[in-house]
Amino acid sequence: TQAHKSIRAKDYDVGPIIGLLVTILCGIVFFLVQVREYYWNSYTISDSVYGSVFYLLTGFHGAHVVVGTIWLLVSLARLWRGEFSSQRHFGLEACIWYWHFVDVVWVTLWCVVYVWFGGWLYMWWFKMWDGNVYSFKYPDAKPSWYAYIQEERVPSWYKVPDRLKI
């Protein structure tokens, strides 16, 4: 946003370059954090439905972040060469809109993957159904993923009811 506002205000020196550099740095840091998270996860893509969905959603998002970061680097190079002006900056504007779209998708994914399935909302749901996260109609249903969680990584609130233990 800073880069876009600076270009429109005919500030081609510091504003857009700093804006793009900060955004590129954020993209690189995000990617490195995702790589670290994948390395330390106690489940894999083939362990369960949750693992498959988790890696699919975050993997596709990570790929879009990489594409966006490369596009930002190309836009930075074009800005450095003076190819953008206050009247001609569609490439930069499209890149910025793409990056904002990736941001909005991440907020949605974070809410679904980390807040709902990994946080207090999931804890509430899990306790509400007495450990049966699928529905009250199947009292013998077992979460397919709980057998794969390493004992030292089990959250303090996670207690599997005796009737669901394998």
TrEMBL record:
CDD domains on file: Cyt_c_Oxidase_III
Give the stretches traversing the membrane.
12-33, 53-74, 95-117
Q: Which residues form a coiled coil?
A: none
Q: Name one GO molecular function term.
A: cytochrome-c oxidase activity
* Topological type in the membrane: Multi-pass membrane protein
Record's Gene Ontology CC terms?
membrane
Is Translocase set as a keyword in this record?
yes
PROSITE patterns, per database record: COX3
Where is this chain's protein located in or outside the cell?
Answer: Membrane
Q: Mind listing the UniProt keywords for this protein, alphabetically?
A: Membrane, Mitochondrion, Translocase, Transmembrane, Transmembrane helix
Q: Which InterPro entries match?
A: Cyt_c/ubiquinol_Oxase_su3, Cyt_c_oxase_su3_dom, Cyt_c_oxidase-like_su3, Cyt_c_oxidase_su3-like_sf, Cyt_c_oxidase_su3_a-hlx
Name the domain of life.
Answer: Eukaryota
One matching Pfam family, short form? COX3
Residues in Heme-copper oxidase subunit III family profile domain copies: 1-118
UniProt family annotation: Belongs to the cytochrome c oxidase subunit 3 family.
**What does this protein do, in the record's words?**
Component of the cytochrome c oxidase, the last enzyme in the mitochondrial electron transport chain which drives oxidative phosphorylation. The respiratory chain contains 3 multisubunit complexes succinate dehydrogenase (complex II, CII), ubiquinol-cytochrome c oxidoreductase (cytochrome b-c1 complex, complex III, CIII) and cytochrome c oxidase (complex IV, CIV), that cooperate to transfer electrons derived from NADH and succinate to molecular oxygen, creating an electrochemical gradient over the inner membrane that drives transmembrane transport and the ATP synthase.
Return the protein name. Answer: Cytochrome c oxidase subunit 3
Species of origin reads: Mytilus trossulus (Blue mussel)
Gene that codes for this? COX3
